[in-house]
Write a structure and sequence with these properties.
- The protein is α+β, with helices and mostly antiparallel strands and about 725 residues long.
- The chain is built from 15 helices and 30 strands.
- The termini are far apart.
- Residues about 5-10 and about 715-735 have low confidence and may be disordered.
Length: about 725
């Protein structure tokens, strides 16, 4: 790898390297000069502008680092006008929100934990090359923008996507390679450690996943070095900030006063008991220290937080003890239940300790697919997963304000975990929506939603390829020491260093999401986390989930729509739809169904009654595939003549049933057997050179009822040969000598 400075004049500088064989160009000093740090990053023809700003003073009254990351998708980047009424970009798409979270996760732990200055990072996608991912381009741009700014930060980081194509790892796969890749793993790294992993995979084994992560980590080292060279040349000195850490003497005083009470309060497996025990401890601490530290009262609660963190981490590192008494690799009590709700299409309740998730599956027609308006090629989704986290799940009273970034992120993780096992639209022509309601939360609700969703899908009769389970692995570090533990609950997540979430089948991994509070992970920690989560999810599948429901139900719920599908020649689509939609509207009305015709000739029929769907399918196939001699159809009588009845077997396709072919017995008058509007089964007996169709109800009944044709004559005189017809459908008079 080499770096070259292309142009230099005034403050404008250009730096260039290559990433995965494509040029990566960084321009600084050209735009957004009023920001603390900014850059324009070009990767191939993908262009991202990143601007980083920080407030001059800390925000008062907050006990967290107030940083925001916004990844902005501009549809002009792909030459598209927004589809909204106002024709401008509105709220961020789910894809944009998820990308913001992916960028946030590796950079947040590298900021000083005691800084309270607001920091804003805005990445605007201005041009998109499908072969050069804008998401990782934005991550690199954010890293450069912060690194060259005056904002304190312990970076830089870099991020790449790792694919698996034909058994080989590919860094930042092209659009065509993505279509056949067995995994999509975003890996972010510092100079030494893996800082973030976000993965979706097609049941990839642990060893392959680990090797893929390491391949991404290796590629990141080149870009980190490249960024360091840029910082060495144009980086600003970092500004000083006011630390928000409590006075060490204050913390030690509170620790000495309350540590025994805190240990007692935390030493239980019940979150409710823990919270109740902590209330009097907080009250006693405030009564003791409010007057002594009158100018720092707001720091007392922060000292209590640090004290709880101290106790939990010391138990884990020094004694191998968990707050609820479990073993380090022991999973909380588990329970699974299906068919919880009677009228829905499928439901599953999954319980792990005090975490409970109820997932409901709903099946719809292909018309119910979600339409997307983003900067990639994905225009719709037929499988959706939504995650809700009401305040009552943690015993709070906050009003519901709709899904936030956390809810969207957890729903997307569960969606990604289950996507590889969802049947294709050809195998199962339904739109699928899952909604995970977190009814009780004490850690790992996102992984509980994966388990609950598998149960709901199987209960709904969705023929998934394999059941999926999810589990999390925690981490506590101290210098070179570390220890991991499976199935972390709330306090272990709050006070630990990692939440390593893995979803997968028995065969392999389908999704990973890693949240860190430290700078990064070593290969040894990653390998151990993968091994522990593999063993744990197999246990959950065998011991709990598959005992509740061993396989998808063979039949759909009676409340679910019934759906059939077929594929016709594209040239026949016009005939199926009819002029102004007349044909398809008639099919829908007559069969009480919905019909979705797609551009490639795929047709999906949805009906409450399966018989209505079958009737519609037969009509469509009759239109699309010209009637064949010997085939049997159900048609509707449209006209009565003295010599027979005309029956429409499909819109625009009508044939004659001669009076001699109307019944098993001799018929004197057509009106004695059928009336206009009657539905009758008929068999095609002849299609003449002009395309006119002769039908027989008699032959259809004989075949369907398994009768002997020799027992029935055709009911006509002289062999019953039907009269020839004129072009207008009337009888053609016979010639007499």
């Amino acid at each position: 790898m080499s770096m070259s400075k292309i142009e230099t004049f005034d403050t404008y500088k250009v730096f260039e390297t290559t990433l995965a064989g494509r040029p990566l160009v960084v321009e600084t000093g050209k735009v957004a000069q009023l920001a603390n740090g900014s850059c324009l990053v070009r990767y191939g023809e993908t262009v991202v502008l990143c601007a980083v700003t920080a407030s001059a003073k800390p925000r008062e009254g907050v006990d967290f680092f107030p940083m925001s990351v916004d990844y902005e998708e501009k549809l002009y980047a792909v030459g598209r006008i927004p589809g909204s009424f106002q024709r401008r970009e509105g709220r961020p798409s789910e894809k944009a929100i998820l990308t913001s979270r992916v960028i946030d996760r590796p950079i947040r732990p590298l900021f000083p934990k005691d800084m309270r200055n607001d920091v804003s990072i805005v990445c605007t996608v201005m041009s998109v090359d499908p072969d050069c991912p804008p998401e990782t381009t934005a991550m690199i741009a954010a890293s450069i923008g912060i690194s060259i700014s005056d904002i304190p930060w312990d970076g830089p980081i870099s991020g790449v996507v790792v694919g698996l194509v034909d058994g080989k790892f590919v860094i930042n796969p092209t659009a065509e390679q993505e279509k056949v890749s067995e995994m999509h793993v975003t890996v972010a790294s510092t100079a030494d450690l893996v800082a973030m992993i976000e993965a979706g995979a097609n049941e990839v084994d642990d060893e392959t996943m680990f090797d893929g992560i390491m391949a991404g980590h290796e590629a990141n080292q080149q870009i980190v070095s490249f960024i360091n060279d840029i910082v060495a040349e144009i980086g600003k000195p970092k500004f000083e900030f006011t630390s928000n850490d409590p006075d060490p003497e204050m913390f030690e005083a509170i620790k000495e006063f309350a540590i025994d009470d805190v240990k007692f309060a935390l030493d239980t497996d019940d979150k409710r008991i823990r919270d109740e025990r902590l209330k009097p401890v907080y009250e006693a601490v405030h009564a003791k220290f409010d007057e002594e530290y009158a100018d720092q009262i707001e720091k007392i609660d922060e000292c209590m937080y640090k004290l709880q963190k101290f106790v939990v981490r010391r138990w884990l590192l020094d004694e191998g003890k968990r707050v609820d008494g479990r073993g380090i690799d022991e999973i909380r009590p588990l329970a699974s239940e299906v068919g919880v709700l009677p009228r829905v299409h499928g439901s599953g309740l999954f319980t792990r300790g005090q975490t409970q998730v109820l997932t409901v599956a709903t099946l719809g027609s292909t018309k119910d697919a979600q339409l997307l308006d983003g900067i990639d090629d994905e225009t719709e989704k037929r499988y959706m997963h939504h995650y809700n986290f009401p305040s009552y799940s943690v015993g709070e009273t906050k009003p519901s304000r709709g899904p936030g970034r956390r809810e969207i992120g957890h729903g997307a993780l569960a969606e990604r975990a289950l996507l590889p096992v969802i049947p294709s639209v050809e195998e199962f022509p339904y739109t699928i929506r899952l909604v995970s309601e977190v009814v009780s939360s004490n850690g790992s609700t996102s992984q509980g939603s994966i388990c609950g969703s598998t149960l709901a899908l199987m209960d709904a009769g969705v023929p998934i390829k394999a059941p999926v389970a999810g589990i999390s692995c925690g981490l506590v570090t101290e210098g070179d020491r570390f220890m991991t533990m499976v199935d972390i609950q709330g306090v272990e997540d709050f006070f630990g260093d990692m939440d390593f979430k893995v979803g997968g089948t028995k065969k392999g991994i389908t999704a990973i999401q890693m949240d860190l509070k430290v700078h990064g992970l070593t290969p040894a920690i990653i390998k151990e986390a993968l091994a522990k989560t593999h063993k744990a999810r197999n246990y959950i599948l065998d011991e709990v989930m598959l005992k509740a429901i061993p396989a998808p139900r063979e039949e759909l719920s009676k409340w679910a729509p019934k759906m059939l599908s077929t594929k016709i020649d594209v040239d026949k689509i016009r005939e199926v739809i009819g002029k102004g939609g007349s044909v398809i509207q008639k099919i829908c009305a007559d069969c009480n169904c919905n019909v979705d015709v797609q551009e490639d000739g795929s047709i999906f029929i949805t009906a409450v009654d399966i018989e209505g769907a079958r009737r519609a399918l037969a009509i469509i196939e009759t239109i699309a595939k010209d009637p064949e001699v010997g085939s049997i159809y159900k048609g509707r009588v449209t006209r009565l003549m003295t010599f027979g009845a005309f029956v429409e077997i499909a819109p625009g396709k009508e044939g004659l049933v001669h009076i001699s072919k109307l019944d098993l017995k001799r018929v004197e008058k057509v009106e004695d057997v059928v009336a206009i509007g009657d539905e009758v089964v008929v068999k095609v007996t002849e299609i003449d050179e002009q395309g006119r169709i002769n039908l027989s109800r008699r032959d259809a009944l004989i075949q369907l009822e398994g009768l002997n044709p020799d027992d029935y004559d055709d009911g006509s005189e002289g062999g019953g040969r039907p009269p020839r017809r004129n072009r207008d459908g009337g009888n053609r008079p016979r010639r007499h000598n």
